[in-house]
Amino acid sequence: MARQAPPRRRPGELSFAGRRRLFVVGAVGLAGLLLWGLAGLPDFSTFTPVYGQVLNRVAVEERSTTDVVTAVNFDYRGFDTLGEEFILFAAVLVLGLLLRALAEERRGKIDDDAPRRHPGKTSDAVRLTTVALVGPTVLLAIYITAHGHLTPGGGFQGGVIAATALLLVYLGGDYAAMRRVRPLTLVTTAKAAGAGGFVLIGLGGLIFAGAFLQNFLPLGQPGHLVAAGTIPLLSLAVGLEVAGGFVLLLSELLDQLLVLRRRRERRSQ
Amino acid sequence: MIAVQVVALLLVALGATATVMARDPVRQAVVASLYGLTLGVLFFAFQAPDVALSNIVIGAVALPAMIMLAIAKTRN
What we know:
heterodimer, A: mainly alpha, two-stranded antiparallel ribbon, B: mainly alpha, 3 helices
């Protein structure tokens, strides 16, 4: 086989040396700007923004939370979190739309789509480890979600951890086992309930306290599990939405990989 | 800056470089997972445990899993 000649340069296209010159000029300029910007940063571990300092002072008393980050996420800037939540919601919806079963696809037996390649048999060690990990992972997810206003964590982190429990089931068992432990209607309901619940709690603030997402429930004592008003409820809503979203995401991708087949055999006849 | 923070920064630099250097996409996904873990350590060392938790689950588990699934689908 003859070697292909290098592609001819079209008129107006830069030569290799020209490109390199352009890159060097650009890189030096970028490095200069970066260094200039870095030199203007505040010194290491000096924290000056007023907003952060005010919140660190008042959040525990004002909202009865001991995790200021969660108080910011689900209360002081709860509206931003609502936007973020719906970004994820829309992204998962669009992914489901893109990966739907097309007219020229059919649902086959659960196996790898690639010819001569089948999902490997899981070893006993992997099975045992994953089985042992599934329970604690779910427990950790619940703990992280429920204690968002007390310790680091919250609905987002807890939700993704819950979804990884499902990944563990797939890893240690197989796709059929994973499908059994994730009834899709329940997952989609949880996801919708999470997204809708966040808005409803926000509307509750509008009705009972005069502003959307205003914390309208009794705040209780800082450090208690039932405290901080709407913050744990919002965290739970996000947890449901995120867990449902990621479970759907993983299911759609695995479905594509292991179940949906193109009807190419029939067409070629 | 305390020693733990210096080590975390070095680990992140190492992990990022390794991710870029890995040429095979499957291998790169695994290296990226380890990189996500080092970033989690970095955030924790710099007193941002909330972000560390998010990054450990997203960067070390969810993202590499999705990359792997996408690669597996496109490779046939």
